[in-house]
Recover the amino acids of this structure.
């Protein structure tokens, strides 16, 4: 048998042997789950990257958590979908090692990122005055770098240690893991055992650190109502994500190490799939629904896209009209309704000039109205609405515009006098409201 060890280049995965009768429904369900995983994770990732107000430590760590979810699932779902449509379930030796490395390193990176998120919440709640000095951009980059590097390094060593001489090619699972590959070795490698226990000890230390941070956070929250509110808003999603991940991982770990052959193949496959199914879907949903900033950004994006699609189908509207109609419907229409205008009589934008798209006003103040193009003042509508959501009546706009004109004239005269070398003592310019 030792002479034949070099010819083992393919492994057989026996986890799908009993699924011949319902492979097509299982394929459709698996493909749907994989699409949902990509949808929810990419939505959160793009929202955090695009919105600069979300470039905070907690959201950066969440973005890395979602990226890691896509990375881990990409090591399993494509191969699993192919196996569901294939009569034979085999994988090459190199492919098996690569799959084991991707799955293990993804699980390790998940633990590291969750530990970083726990530390971030610990500093924010227990040491709020030092938060911005501790969680600097440079330090966050270092934290994220090591959160990815350490699992990759540890699991790379573990995967290399698994490349011993093999005396078997049968893996009783739907994917490859280092423990099952090591079980096929002709002889037990002490190095692989030492590395495995070192990895377990390392991530057990991560778990102890997370528990320690939560003990201190709970103690601090018991003293302050404000900290309790902060804990419920930001720490509860993290705690739920951590619980889902740990429970799913423990199911798979106990099944791999202490699995019983009395369990049906379907139950064994479900236990093996848990940490590849629930955390990648649950984590973005938990944070997307619980964290107010992310939820509002996603809702605003969806509402604007829906309104824009409604107006694009109308041939009588130019791009400027489409954009202004969306803004008017989402913000100005609501403000006009609060000012007493019926829904069917709210001010339209058919007479708004094209250069109105450059307006940027937050309220009816002289500083803001001064940047409004002159053609805007000729709009024959009962309310003038700016893209920022402000609504000013024509009377207000006219008064402010006239006062700004007088102020500009007075400042011009003062500037001209000063340029001639004459000292002018005058009262400060005041614009009454």
């Amino acid at each position: 048998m030792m002479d034949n060890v070099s010819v083992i280049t393919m492994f057989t995965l026996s986890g799908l042997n009993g699924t011949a009768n319902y492979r097509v429904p299982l394929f459709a369900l698996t493909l749907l789950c994989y699409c949902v995983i990509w949808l929810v994770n990419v939505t959160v990732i793009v929202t955090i990257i695009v919105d600069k107000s979300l470039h905070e430590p907690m959201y950066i760590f969440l973005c890395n958590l979602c990226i890691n979810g896509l990375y881990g699932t990409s090591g399993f779902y494509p191969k699993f979908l192919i196996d569901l449509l294939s009569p034979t379930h085999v994988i090459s030796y190199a492919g098996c090692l690569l799959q084991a490395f991707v799955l293990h390193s993804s699980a390790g990176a998940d633990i590291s990122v969750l530990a970083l998120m726990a530390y971030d919440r610990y500093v924010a709640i227990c040491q709020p005055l030092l938060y911005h000095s501790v969680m600097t951009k440079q330090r966050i980059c270092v934290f994220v770098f090591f959160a990815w590097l350490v699992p990759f390094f540890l699991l790379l060593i573990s995967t290399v240690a698994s490349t011993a001489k093999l005396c078997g090619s049968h893996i009783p699972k739907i994917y490859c893991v280092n423990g099952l590959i090591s079980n096929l070795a002709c002889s037990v490698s002490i190095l692989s055992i030492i590395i495995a226990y070192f990895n377990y000890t390392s991530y057990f230390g991560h778990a102890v650190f997370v528990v320690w941070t939560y003990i201190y956070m709970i103690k601090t929250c018991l003293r302050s109502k404000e900290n309790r509110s902060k804990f419920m808003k930001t720490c509860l999603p993290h705690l739920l994500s951590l619980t889902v991940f740990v429970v799913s991982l423990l199911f798979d770990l106990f099944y791999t190490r202490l699995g019983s052959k009395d369990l049906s193949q379907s139950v064994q496959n479900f236990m093996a799939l848990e940490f590849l199914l629930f955390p990648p879907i649950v984590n973005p949903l938990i944070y997307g629904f619980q964290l107010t900033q992310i939820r509002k950004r996603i809702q605003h994006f969806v509402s604007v896209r829906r309104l824009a699609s409604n107006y694009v189908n109308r041939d009588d509207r130019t791009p400027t009209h489409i954009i202004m109609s969306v803004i008017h419907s989402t913000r100005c229409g609501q403000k006009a309704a609060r000012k007493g205008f019926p829904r069917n009589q709210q001010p339209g934008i058919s007479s708004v000039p094209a250069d109105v798209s450059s307006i940027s006003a937050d309220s009816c103040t002289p500083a803001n109205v001064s940047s409004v193009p002159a053609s805007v003042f000729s709009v024959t509508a009962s309310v003038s609405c700016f893209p920022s959501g402000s609504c000013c009546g024509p009377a207000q706009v006219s008064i402010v515009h006239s006062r700004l004109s007088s102020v500009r004239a007075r400042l011009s005269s003062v500037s001209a006098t000063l340029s001639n070398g004459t000292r002018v003592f005058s009262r400060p310019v005041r614009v009454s409201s």
About this structure: The chain is about 65% helix and 5% strand.
